[in-house]
Amino acid sequence: MKPPNHQTISFFLIFNFLLSSFPHLQATAAAGGDGATTIAFATLGRSSYAFDIYAIPTNRPSKEIRLTDGKSVNFNGFFPSPSSLSVLPQLPNRPDPTTHILYITERNGSSKIYLDALYDTPPLTSGSRSMLEFPTESTNRLQVNLLGDEQTGGRVSMKDKPSLVGQSLIYVSTHENPGQPRASWAAIYSTQLTTGSTRRLTPKGVADFSPAVSLSGVWTAVASFGEKGWGGEVQELDTDIYVFLTRDGSSRVKIVEHGGWPAWADDSTLYFHRRCDDGWWSVFRASFSTKDGQLGVESVVTRRLTPPGLHAFTPAASSSNKSFIAVATRRPESEFRHIELYDVVSKKFIDVTRPVSPNAHHLNPFISPDSGWVGYHKCRGASNDGKDNNDLVLENVRSPLPNVSLFRVDGSFPSYSPDGERVAYVKFPGLFVMNNDGSGVRNVLTRTAFSTAWDWKRKGVVYTSVGPTFASESTKVDIISINVDDEDLSYKQLTLGGENNAFPSPSPDGKWVVFRSGRTGHKNLYIMDALNGETGRLHRLTEGPWTDTMCNWSPDGEWIAFASDRENPGSGSFELFKIHPNGTGLQKVIQSGLGGRTNHPWFSPDGKYIVLTSDYAGVSAEPISNPHHYQPYGDIFVIKSDGTGIQRLTHNSYEDGTPAWSSKYTRPTNVEWPSGRSKCSFDDCHWLNISPNKVSSSSNKKRQCAH
Ligand SMILES: *[C@@H]1O[C@H](CO)[C@@H](O)[C@H](O)[C@H]1NC(C)=O
Ligand SMILES: *[C@@H]1O[C@H](CO)[C@@H](O)[C@H](O)[C@H]1NC(C)=O
Ligand SMILES: *[C@@H]1O[C@H](CO)[C@@H](O)[C@H](O)[C@H]1NC(C)=O
Ligand SMILES: *[C@@H]1O[C@H](CO)[C@@H](O)[C@H](O)[C@H]1NC(C)=O
């Protein structure tokens, strides 16, 4: 490898050098010309994920150090080896950095890969000098955005699980559309940092996750669906482990059937996780031979390492001390996910995070090259000064559409008033209204409600459904209208029977409300009088032994879009349809492959487009590497109202849903809650059951779980 030279440094000048005195993010005034609009959506639990990366010494697990800067959401870290750091510029008048940390950050609304160099100050005397011992709150941090717009062409994508090998950055990105519904866009790329040239390492039409590069840099291992694609799994993915040459993705071979999250100890030893037939997630080792640049696929020996009785997953290996690995665990006696070391010789676990922070979830460990530190991420909680808690009312999400500004709302079922000035949303258990800049939040209903919509004619009138979500046809849910400008917030009950009447959407002439109701034993669509509800007038719009739901009336009054499972009732699969309010013209708008889901349609203000949530892009990461999401696949998409021209707006591994479209453009900027109160109250994966059931062997995949 060539030593750094002036070229390297000038190359880095085109990378955004972000010193830690990062100026507060300012959106450009240029965006949002004529016809520009705004889409708001919800992400399950996301407002609690103020992650930072921390590390603890492996030999005295007592002291925890925060490595990232307490801004935004930072996760999936990696300690680069000293030899790969020659790509970094030498700063004049600076000592050598004490450590480097590579990680994913979501600052300023998109997924990025940052490399931070951390410096000691004042320089410690050699006697007391030890890696990572410095105040991370200092200004002694250099941040480099490794994939700026120059390298990505301004494309929006999710990035994940970065490694730095020589001068190449290896990572997951979702910027290429495989052109198939229900296919994951996640693939592995390699970007040469000195030239910016990027190469796809995953074959076309295949999705790869969780890449790990071997110590020599020669091999990369991934979890992959291979040719079979995503089958709709939301817990353990049906992946196998593949290995290929990091150089160009060639010599790709399946090395282990059934497994995920590979980690290399050396070029012939891989660790990975797998859910066993006894129900426990366990870490396995695969050993094989590597000769003359060939992998001995026939010689692979796999062995279960961690025993039943606890879940152990997302392994990390150390290249300098092969006697231990790091894993995340869920033990029956704890509600929290912890990082532990596992001594592969003595077969003993050693606590890492439990003594330091017993009541927090810790995710995705990684080990420093000298094996002295184990890193992981966890929620940072509230900072002392209440700043940078990432506690946002509205989070600016970078939009791939230049004339649409995109926001994540800290709540669900947002909807905009017809003038775009106000937002109604639900945060269980209550209904809230605020200005579109996040100010003036008011709780206007304290009961459990879901879905919101504003009347087009009567100012301040908001419709909602009161009762539980995801409930049966006979559950007591009724539609009400509230005048939020009314001092006493009087409301009117519009449906009476309580048979799961929900998802109200008013007609633009202000006369009608379309909604779904389970009154016949099936959820179908009905239209009622907007002022007096079903006692005023009621007619049935759709009829059949299936579910029609999530309806939205177009701004020109001509169409009602809705989600339906009518083609396969009860299957859990939903497609979008539209129908004229007089019951004619039924059309299917879009379907996300066989058995897929498209839900929550909402027309654009000009009626030409529909925004929706769908599993169209499959999953983007192994669900076990994230907090809990019921459906770890929802992304927000825009289609033309005839169903063509699908465009993906969000790229992440979270569950994004309930989008709504506003006629007004809102400047892309984050809005913080006035009083910072970071909660860290997110759930670990619900299906990490502490008394797991045996996994049925319906598939013929090998679970090989015996010791
Ligand atoms: C933040 O994002 C906005 C657009 O979403 C962009 O205009 C602005 O330049 C970004 N700021 C930084 C510091 O990257
Ligand atoms: C390797 O790790 C084990 C387990 O933490 C430890 O007991 C041993 O001393 C380490 N060996 C070296 C050479 O650091
Ligand atoms: C964005 O603007 C272009 C050009 O004005 C227009 O053709 C397109 O329909 C707009 N897209 C949306 C989603 O509004
Ligand atoms: C139903 O409504 C559509 C759209 O408004 C209209 O084109 C059509 O003529 C109507 N059909 C009947 C039978 O009224």
Automatic annotation (TrEMBL):
Taxonomic classification, please? Eukaryota, Viridiplantae, Streptophyta, Embryophyta, Tracheophyta
Which residue positions does the secretion signal occupy?
Answer: 1-27
The UniProt entry, under InterPro entries, shows: 6-blade_b-propeller_TolB-like, WD40
Keywords from the named record: Signal
Name of the protein in its database record: Uncharacterized protein
Q: Which SUPFAM superfamilies match?
A: DPP6 N-terminal domain-like, Tricorn protease N-terminal domain
